[in-house]
Structure formats: C-alpha cells, structure tokens
Amino acid sequence: MEDLWSVAVGLLQLWMFVVVFFIMLPAMFGLSLGVTGVYIQILVKILEWATIRIQRGRLEQPNVPIPIYLQTLCELRRSRAIEGGEFALSDALYFFKKGLESIADDEVTQRFSSEELASWNLLTRTNLNFQYISLRLTIIWGLGVFVRYCILFPLRLTLALIGLSWLVVGLTIIGFLRGWLSELVHLTCYRICARALSATIHYHNKENKPQRGGICVANHTTPIDIVILANDGCYAMVGQIHGGLMGIIQRAMVRSCPHVWFERSEMKDRHAVTSRLRAHVAAKTKLPILIFPEGTCINNTSVMMFKKGSFEIGGTINPVAIKYDPRFGDAFWNSSKYNMLSYLLRTMTSWAIVVNVWYLPPMTIEDGEDAASFANRVKSAIASQGGLLDLAW
Amino acid sequence: MGSRASTLLREEEIEEIKKETGFSHSQITRLYSRFTSLDKGENGTLSREDFQRIPELAINPLGDRIINAFFPEGEDQVNFRGFMRTLAHFRPIEDNEKNKNAAPSEPLNSRTNKLLFAFRLYDLDRDDKISRDELLQVLRMMVGVNISDEQLGSIADRTIQEADTNGDNSISFNEFMKVLEKVDVEQKMSIRFLH
C-alpha cells in the first residue's frame, strides 16, 4: 500500500517537473523548445497519409452514394433517448428545418456553422461524410483518440489551471506595483494559457504591432482570440462585466492595467461607450484598445460587416487579421450549439490550434470619409490579408 | 444584389411585414434580396420550379412537402409576403422579447404555431388529421427504398398507436402536440437569422 502511494507521489512529482520545466518556464520567457513544431510536422504527415488513404478507399469502393439523410437519420437515432431507435414524429422536424435553412440560406447564415473540411482530419467531430476505409486508418484514429484524451488533455488542463490561478493571484499582488512588471505578469499568464490551449501562433509583420494610444481591430472567431493576441503584447480590453469566474478574472485585470469594462446597462448607451473609449485613447500612455467590430463569433472563413461604432472614436486603427488552420482543430465557437465549458473541452482535445496573425499597417480615417466606409475599408484589408471572404453583409 | 433590390420594396411594405412576422428591418431586406435572387422569371413571385432549383432542397427527402407549404391552397405562385409569412414560423422564439410592437395575436413563431406548421407538413389533404397513409408517405420519403413496405407499415402503425388517444386511428393536432411535448421544438424549428 505504501509502495503504491510512493509510486503515485513520484509520478506526480515527475509530472509537475515536466510541466514546469519543459512547458511553463520556456513559455514564460517566450522561448520554444521546438517540440510543438516537430509535433505539428508529424501531424501534417499523418493527416496527409490519411487523406491519400481515404481518397484511394473511395475510388476502390463501388460507387454507391450513401444519401446524406440516411446518415443524419442514424445520428438522430443515436442522439435520441428513445429505446429501439425507430421513427418518431420529431425526426421529420430536422428535415423541415434543413429545408427552410436552404431556402433562406445566403452567405450569411452559412457563417454561423463550422467550416466543412475538404478531407477528414481524424477527429470524430468533423466526420461528416467519411465512412470506414481501412483497418490501419481506424487504428491511427484510435491512437489519436488515446493521445488526445489521455496525454494531451490532462497536460493542457494542468496548464490551464496553473495559468488562470497565476493570472488572478499574480495580478492581484502586482496590482500594487505598476509598469513593466505587471505587463510581464500579463504576458506570462497569457503564454501559459496559450500553451494550455495548445496554440501555435505565427506572428507576421511585427513592425506594425499596435502602439499605445491606438485601437486594435481584429476579426472574431472565438474568445480565444484575446489570448492569441495578448501573447504578443498587452491590450486594454473592452467588454461587459461578467459574473462568476470571468468576473474575478476581469476584476484582477483591472487592478493592474486600465481596462475598459462596462456594466451591461452602459453598453446600451452608445455615447457613453464612445466617450469612454475616446478618453482612453486620448491619454496616449494607455495600452491599445482591442475591439472586435463584428460583434459576434464568425466561423473564420469570411469577415462580416463591421459595426461602425469603433471607427467613430478617432485615432489610429491598427487592423489585425487572425486565421486559424482548420486542419488541426476547429476553433470556431458556435455559441448556439456549445456553451463555454464544452467549447474549451473540445479545444483542448483537438490536435492543436495553429493560428496565423498578421499585423497590418495602421489606417486613419480620410477626409470626407464617413465611419461606415472607413469600417468597410478596414474590413477589406483584413479580409484580403487573412485570405478570408469579404462579405457584403 | 444589395441596393437595387431594396429600392423595389417600399417602406410601408417593410413595416407591414415587420408587424406581421416580427422580422427586423435588416432581416427583411436581406431576405428580399434572397427572394429576388431565387426569382429567375423576375415577376415578383416564386413558382415551384424556382424552389426546386435550390440544390440542398432538391436532395432533402421532404423537399417537396416544404415547397408545398409556401403555396396557399390551389395556387402556383407565392409573393414576398407569403414567403416571409412561411419563413416567420422558423424565427427563434427569444427574439420576441426584443420586438416591442409584436402583433396582439399569437406571433407566427410561437411554439404552437411552429407545431401547427409541422403538422400541416404531414397532413397533406388538410383535414386536420394525420392518417396512416399520410404518415406512410412521409416515412417512405425519409427512409428511401431500403425498407420493405411491411416494415414501414408496422413502424407507421406503432407510431399511430403510441400517439392516438381517442382511437380514431389517426393523429389529430392535439395528439401531435402531446407526442412532441418533451421535444425542444423551439430549437429544432428555429433558424438563426442575423440581426
């Protein structure tokens, strides 16, 4: 009994040692051991092999097109609690809804569901039309499940817990000191959180990074966008005050750098919002504000209409384009389908989040241009840089 | 698209549609441009062929039923008002809170009205009852050719047996509502339109 206990303690110590020295410390100093890079390369090779096998398998099998509705019917049975899984009157509702969606469908409604992949990336959640091809593929998939859930997930969970608690504790302590020390704490926490989410970030054109007194504008895919951007610099966030865990984090953040948090009621009053933001920008020593003008999460294939409110503040706008690589994991937060917790769980159990961030040169409003056309100009710049569709809506 | 289409829709019409269906101004203009893009004949109405041209609808097993729902009894053309009225059934329910000047009568997208819409998709001859034949038709459309007639018949019989409370071997609207009591109709029959 004691042996077992000491073994367990020993394992735990080893675990924490690995976590701290191989992940946390390098993360804190912004260094990389290159492990992630190698991991990504191996993953790409495996996915390419899998794609070739799937394509070959499709050609070999007789050309029996399995109607999509049969598969969705099977899914409906699986998801229902009724025993025996036969027809129920509510099954038809699914088809009614899909039919109406395709009638009302335009470029806009499509943007609220996850991007469909051209080829399966060995995650069950993205498995729409891909059937059983070969034993080897299934084994690889099974291995992938094991690796993702039993090795990567606990690692990321540990990191996330450490990162969050360090954020709250560290900021509360540092709140009494100001200056670069609090920035360092911020950066460290965000880097740990980014590692927790298995994010590999590539920054481009760092010379255009937003400076103090500027406004940073980016396309929005997920709440993780904040972590991604904050890995490379400190921003002042704009948003509503939440309760619960988010509220604690927000209050801790306020103590160290001046963020602009609003009460829910204040958000409705656009003038109040605009004047507070103006005041923040005018004081040129404050951190750049981070704003997501789309107002909601979009699935990262396009950029939707920017709300012009952020462009009326004046000052320099620094656009940033964020593009996630869909092969490794779906970063889009479909808030109608998943709540925050299940979204985070899905993120932590996908292969990785690989993201490219492009800093664009600063833009200012031109003479005779109104806020709406300025917003459109910025939107087109972001869309063309990130390789996203620039939607008219 | 865009500006040309919206000038053909008068402000009064938009207001009327807003009151009747509860859609917002921008939703109406966007759906109007969708309507005009479907209207290949450019005569301000849609025919059944216009709907059948939509690829996703063509492969939907219940596509014909859905197209039918847009056309009032015996008619072959649907105008924009009718189009919006049908689509309004699928508006998400919580949007009603934001719509201060909702119609005094029950809104088109209430749970009951959503269920009524679904009921009418089953009930082809509109006699307010889903008979065994009508159920069989929908079943056959949904499962295709892989299941035999007898199997399908027994599934239909079982479904009617479970739902039928007054013993007339068909499903009335109340029985239909009872069966779908526990189903999250609000979610299953709502489409997310952008604000």
Automatic annotation (TrEMBL), chain A:
Membrane topology term: Multi-pass membrane protein
Record-linked InterPro entries: LPCAT1-like (IPR045252), Plipid/glycerol_acylTrfase (IPR002123)
Residues passing through the membrane, by range: 12-40, 133-155, 161-181
Major localization listed first in the record, in broad terms: endoplasmic reticulum
Gene Ontology CC, one term: endoplasmic reticulum membrane
Keyword Nucleotide-binding: no
Entry annotated with the keyword Protein biosynthesis: no
UniProt entry keywords in alphabetical sequence: Acyltransferase, Endoplasmic reticulum, Lipid biosynthesis, Lipid metabolism, Membrane, Phospholipid biosynthesis, Phospholipid metabolism, Transferase, Transmembrane, Transmembrane helix
GO BP field: phospholipid biosynthetic process; triglyceride biosynthetic process
Domain Phospholipid/glycerol acyltransferase: 214-325
UniProt subcellular location: Endoplasmic reticulum membrane
Pathway noted in the entry: Lipid metabolism; Glycerolipid metabolism; triacylglycerol biosynthesis; Phospholipid metabolism; CDP-diacylglycerol biosynthesis; CDP-diacylglycerol from sn-glycerol 3-phosphate: step 1/3
GO molecular function: glycerol-3-phosphate O-acyltransferase activity
Family under the similarity heading: Belongs to the 1-acyl-sn-glycerol-3-phosphate acyltransferase family.
Protein name: Phospholipid/glycerol acyltransferase domain-containing protein
Organism: Periophthalmus magnuspinnatus
From TrEMBL, chain B:
Official protein name in the record: EF-hand domain-containing protein
Keyword Nucleus: yes
GO biological process assignments: protein transport
GO molecular function per UniProt: calcium ion binding
Residues covered by the EF-hand domain: 26-61, 110-145, 151-186
Record lineage: Eukaryota, Metazoa, Chordata, Craniata, Vertebrata
Protein location: Cell membrane; Cytoplasm; Nucleus
Pfam families per the UniProt record, alphabetical: EF-hand_7
